[in-house]
Design a protein that fits this description.
- By secondary structure, the chain is an alpha/beta fold.
- The chain has a domain of about 100 residues.
- It has a four-stranded mixed beta sheet. It has a three-stranded antiparallel beta sheet with strand order 7-8-9, with no helix packed on it. The chain has a two-stranded antiparallel sheet with strand order 3-4.
- It is elongated.
- It starts with a strand and ends in a 9-residue tail after the last strand.
- It binds calcium ion (4 copies).
Length: about 170
Amino acid sequence: MMIKNAADQIVCFTNRRVNVLDLLAPGCRINSTNNTKAFDYLCGTSQAAPHVSGTVLLLKQLNKTLTPDQIESTFKNTGVTVGDYKRIDALAALNAIRDKDNDNYYDQAYGGNDCNDNNAAVNPGATEVCDNIDNDCDSIIDEGCVNQCTVSGYEQCFESTFGDCSASCHYAV
Ligand SMILES: [Ca+2]
Ligand SMILES: [Ca+2]
Ligand SMILES: [Ca+2]
Ligand SMILES: [Ca+2]
């Protein structure tokens, strides 16, 4: 862990030993409690470490099976680049867990309403199309599809989506 200030600058006294320190966290001019029952602005790893441990706690609250390696790689993958290092980004780290497909809808496993968090095209804001999957997460597959053959061998689904109607084709009456 290393130390940065509010401007995302690495402070001069930060240890920069390569292959030992590779993750930044806010640690300078941090307003926190002191030992005189008051508040104070301090710098150091004592200020930076709580930011990391607190963010680890948030990730573990989402998924307690996350391992230290998974958490570290999440921080590195989602962190903001500062020089040769990454500064932890708590919101981005959380979203990497609860919104893996990055469609701005959280996985149902984490209290969201994304019924498939591995497919960004599937979410409550998507348009239902005739593809045999529930695109808009309303628990109904292909609602609104019109099985009307307009060309022999094909059927027109909802709006402009076409599919193979060899299995079932319902002609308009
Ligand atoms: Ca998602
Ligand atoms: Ca999705
Ligand atoms: Ca649907
Ligand atoms: Ca569908």
